[in-house]
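To fix ideas, we close by showing one paired sequence and structure record:
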Amino acid sequence: VISLGPRKALRLEYALKARRRGYYAVGPLEISTGDLLGLSSEIISQTGKDYLTVYPRVVPLTDPFLPSRSPMGTLRHRQPIYEDPSRPTGKRDYQAGDSLRRIDWKASAATGKLQVKLFEPSIALETVVFLNLNLNEYSLRDRVDGTELAIVAAASLANWVISKRQSTGLATNGVDVLASNLDANAIPSRKGRAHLMRILESLARVRALETSSLAALLRRYRPGIPWGTTLILITGSVSDELFDEALQAKRAGMSIVILLCGRFRAAQEARLRGNAVGIPVLDLQDEEGFRAWQR
């Protein structure tokens, strides 16, 4: 209750501390005015609702060790199979089996020996993050912390990929409070800060519920993903069905990384199984685990 004298004004300010990601309604604000004696009629005014989006926490990463099979990109790579003709680094003497297209004829004429151009290897890291928010695939004790950690991981990885001027997308089986259907939860791969903001806004609003499995989500969107794309599967557990779908994606020419968030009892078994088929399985029990990617 505020009392104002004649020709007086008062400005009220409220500070909101965003401690948790989400999509929050602010308002409506209702104001009722009148005089102390009740001589004038009461006036009630009401403002409309406004909305506040709180982004998830983004952990700055240095190198999350993401594999890629896409050549001709902008990231440096150690494997010479991914040499980029737009990045010449030097020359060497011709060896049997070298392509004639790589011969530098001017340098060969100057030295009297056939010289071959050398190129710097590079890759294109196009990624799609598959975020599992099906509560049934997280342990009962980790359903809150595990799903929130998965969202932080998705946001941090998307931020790292975008910062490297690469493209990334997002697909999740969580429920967006503003989405009219599940198709709105799939964001195709793009580059740029504006695209990152779109991903972060989606991650801010998404909710974890008992929905379809991550394997079903991967099965649904995998046919439309191009060859060489790196798929990051963020989940709380690994089932036989998910491993089967991951193997199908790997045989289709995609690179697969499984990131376990929370405390999964069979994490060691999942890592051994993944190593046997060439699928890295990483374990992230809490945010302290990000330090391995910040070195």
About this structure: The two ends are 55 Å apart (CA to CA). Residues 123 and 260 are 26 Å apart (CA to CA).
